[in-house]
Amino acid sequence: MPQSYLDSLSVAADAERRRERLAHGDGSVVNLVAERAGQVIGWGCYGPYRQDGGGRTADGEVYALYVHPDHWSSGAGRLLLAELTGRAAAEGRPRVLLWVLKANDRARRFYERAGFAPDGAEEDFVVDDVAVPEVRYVRDLRGPGGPAGPGGAGGARSGDTARVR
């Protein structure tokens, strides 16, 4: 990710943009937070899969999944992802897709352990005239690898004390 883009990010502007979306959204996007000891330590959201051109499909898409670095490998990300995929399955979505930066090996391993796999689709996310390659991952929610499979309801380790709401 270009440093110029990272330097231009504003927590206050992003928070205001998200407040607006939460207050005036169409209800199709699910936002969840992970908490530990009363502190928000992660956030994830999902909704209908967005096709190029603005269309939507029956599939779901994880739009974002973030956990504060101090809480990586604590189970919070697994809990968030399990809840997101579980809700997608409960809505009858056949698959969940997501996009991840191609060079983000840690995130790619995380998603693979949760039962996602790259499906061959790649796209460049252009930021400040720099192409940042992304790959698409997919997880089928039907059958044995469904939401109770790898990374599903049983995906969190025992002893995890984060909760999702």
From TrEMBL:
<dbReference type="InterPro" id="IPR016181">
    <property type="entry name" value="Acyl_CoA_acyltransferase"/>
</dbReference>
<dbReference type="InterPro" id="IPR000182">
    <property type="entry name" value="GNAT_dom"/>
</dbReference>
<feature type="compositionally biased region" description="Gly residues">
    <location>
        <begin position="143"/>
        <end position="157"/>
    </location>
</feature>
<keyword id="KW-0012">Acyltransferase</keyword>
<keyword id="KW-0808">Transferase</keyword>
<feature type="domain" description="N-acetyltransferase">
    <location>
        <begin position="1"/>
        <end position="139"/>
    </location>
</feature>
<feature type="region of interest" description="Disordered">
    <location>
        <begin position="140"/>
        <end position="165"/>
    </location>
</feature>
<protein>
    <submittedName>
        <fullName>GNAT family N-acetyltransferase</fullName>
    </submittedName>
</protein>
<dbReference type="Pfam" id="PF00583">
    <property type="entry name" value="Acetyltransf_1"/>
</dbReference>
<dbReference type="InterPro" id="IPR050832">
    <property type="entry name" value="Bact_Acetyltransf"/>
</dbReference>
